[in-house]
Amino acid sequence: MADGVGTWNVLEWTQVTTPKHGLEKFLLEAEDVIVHKTGVVLLNTDEAGILAVTNFRLLFVSRASKCIIELGTIPLTTIEKITDDVKLTSVPRNSEKRELLQVIGKDMRVVTFAFLPKTMQRSAVMDVLKRYRKPVQLWELYAFQCDPSKFKNSNPKLRLLKEYYRFFGKRLLHLPEDESYIISNDRWRMTTINSNYTLCPTYPSVLVVPKSISDEELLQAASFRTSRRIPVISWCNPGSGAVLARSSQPRVGPFMSSRNHSDERLVAGLCSSSADSSASRRKLYIVDARPIANALANNVKGGGSESSSNYFKSEVVFLGIDNIHVMRESLSRLREYVDTHGTTSSDGTSSFLRNGGSTWGGGNLSSMSGSASTLGDTGWLTHVQNVLSGAAWIAARIALESASVLVHCSDGWDRTTQLVSLASLLLDPYYRTFKGFQALVDKDWLAFGHPFADRMGIPTVTDLATSTSTEMLTRQSSMGNASSSPLHSQSGSNLAGARGGTNHNQASDNISPILLQWVDCVFQLLRLYPCAFEFSSRFLVDFLDAVLSCRFGNFLCNCERERQQAGISEVCGCIWIYLSDLRAIGGRSHEHFNLFYDPSRHEGPILPPAAALAPTIWPQFHLRWACPSEAHASEFESMWRTMNKKYSETSKAKELAESKAKDLESKTESLSEELRKEKQKSSSALATVNRVRRENLAIKRAVQSLGCRVNLSTNQSHTSSDLMASTYSDDPSDRSPHDLSVSISAIEDAGVVSGGNPLSRVCESMCPFRTKDGCKWPNEQCAQLGSQFVGLKADFGAFENITIDDQYFHS
User: Catalytic one among 146, 236, 409, 782?
Assistant: First the structure.
């Protein structure tokens, strides 16, 4: 940033406090400012502005641009750690005047804020963050303070049942009040034995199990598994009958001496080709996600792993994936590495200039291998590769051998969830779509009890035993959701969950990026198979951000039972509706859509070879804060998205133009048809006029042949020839009316004689009515014609209608 523009040096002491924060336009629904301070500098970018703590997030607004700075704005539940003991590797200019506060996020963000000294600004912000970053009670979260109708949550039980029905090749439209939705086939069946969560508090209310196993046997097997998490079916292949099952570790105890026949029958049922227990059985792989040393260590605590001799046609395989504590430390080291060696670090210094540039990339310039070893020391990519390799191995056993696989770790809700859901993603192309991804997460992560509250360090209903009923009712009443939440009616009851209540000191040790690591694995597969996934890397980033923010209720609490007790689906919004609305706004050109998606290329399983499973840093997530320009999509993808957007716009314009052209063509055809009809009418009228003209001329000649003169008269000055021409004109524009009349008079004898008319000569010699004055017809009688035309004066219009037969004159 240029000197003198929104930086520390131009801030004045009078700007430290203001009576109003002026942040209203930046706030979300039900978001309230708790404390705000002006004159704060975001050290990463050396930008000054207003820092506010709301009931949802830490909000930083630039003084220069008057816009939210995304780097300095982080949801409270996404904050992993805050500290005022900041030791800068490289000391920026004027830093000795500043009081520093560092915020470390679960989303790879490390930001440092600088406050004016001796103003108590930092202390005020610190106190509020300590109080609201880790709320004591569940309903203090922002998700409970929003109107759930905007992103209304559907029934999670119905979503799970729809996925189960898909396994059976059927559809479920609504949830019946009774248990009529329970179905089965010749291999598997649905059971409601856990409808009250008595079989297993952390399992869903409806389970899919082998049809050959009764509910009584399920109850007997539950005591043999840690946390009563028995082997159940998570995914099945309707064609081959192979299943992917999950459970927790067995309680074999020291020396692996304990057995449970119901558990052995249940596991054997996973391998049967049909409900007939005597039918041939397929191969069974029992996959223990832990290192073998960890599994053996659990024997002392009563846990352990299965013995293949106790499970028919089985093989036990260990994958060597480390536990949640190792993963947490690994991500912490990766975050530190990225912040230290990024373009923009939390101390505001570029990695190229730190320590004179001699340790660029984490090593000495004389040995560039130092950079790679430092990244390798984080262990993150190795852990991701282990999870990927394990899931690919499981998928290959099911797809290539039609074998069944049972997966577990210690408790069966961390590494087990990662492996089962990732293997399902490889096996079933449906899970690689938006709807399928939602169904997969709802089933394997939410319904089967991944402890999100423990892993994100937020309270859950298991903490209610330490709360008073008065505090609960007061808080719920202030939110306006007391009547709709089941917690209102259960405020005086003991709601301690299956895992038991935990204090904040214990909870911090359970925080671990298990979901983040799984989504990282999904990204690696998306990178390897860009045409296999409907969603993009950006969708995965937004999904993770929404989960970590705790803005929606889907990922609150530790299991389905706890969410049902808290009434989450009734009083909190749904993350899936939120993401769906984002896509609806942008249409197919939205950045959540994968431009390269081609389902026809990967209609079946994808089975990546081990050599291809070499993960890389996920730039869109891991590098977006420290290396913002490098974190964006590749130049090729960016250009392709721009071209695709233009193509979409051009296609729409083309469709609009084609629609207009069709309309014009239709109108032209209509006008052409009308013109054709008019031409037909005009031709018919012209033919009629010509016929009438010929008839009139024939009448005129006939009358003249009788020795009569045809006299035309009008009130306009036209000659006889002009009138005839006008009357019989073919010009349709001549529409002038004529007061026209016709009179017929006899021709004088002289004219007759001179004309040499034969009829006149006959009359002259033979007519008895002829006088010395000549022929008086038509005023007098005529021997030839009698008296038919005596005194004839006819209107021209009437005369036109007279038809004279030629034979009349020859009679």
Answer: 409
Q: Is 505 annotated as a binding residue?
A: no
Has 213 been labeled as part of a binding site?
Answer: no
CA triplet 575, 581, 582: central angle to 5 degrees? 95
Distance CA 65, CA 49 (A): 9
What is the mean pLDDT for each group of 10 consecutive residues in the chain (811 residues)? Answer: 37 38 87 93 91 95 93 95 80 66 94 90 93 90 88 87 92 80 90 95 96 95 96 93 95 87 94 62 93 91 91 93 95 91 78 54 43 75 96 96 95 97 97 96 96 94 47 37 44 40 57 97 96 95 96 94 92 93 85 91 93 92 88 66 77 90 91 90 90 83 70 54 46 50 57 48 65 71 54 46 49 42
Give the number of other CB atoms < 10 A from CB of residue 722.
Answer: 13
> For residue 692, what are its two tokens?
């009438």
> What value, to the nearest 5°, has the Cα angle with vertex 222 and ends 219 and 227?
140
- Residue 453 tokens read as 């509250």
* Separation between Cα atoms, residue 571 and residue 484, nearest integer Å: 7
Q: How far is CA 505 from the centre of its chain?
A: 40
CA distance 534 to 556: 27
The closest of 224, 222, 223 to 209, measured between CA atoms, is 222
299 is in an annotated binding site: yes
Distances (CA, A) of 774 to 141, 363, 747, 761: 131, 146, 10, 12
State the pLDDT at residue 488.
41
Q: Which residues contact 371 (CB under 8 A, 6 or more apart)?
A: 341, 360, 361, 362, 363
Tokens of 649: 């716009």
Q: Which pLDDT score is estimated for 177?
A: 77
Mark whether 531 is an active-site residue: no
409 annotated among ligand-binding-site residues:
yes
The enclosing H or E element of 115 equals: strand 110-115
Torsions phi, psi for 5 (to 5 deg): -125, 95
415 carries a ligand binding annotation: yes
Residue 205's identity, in one-letter code, is S
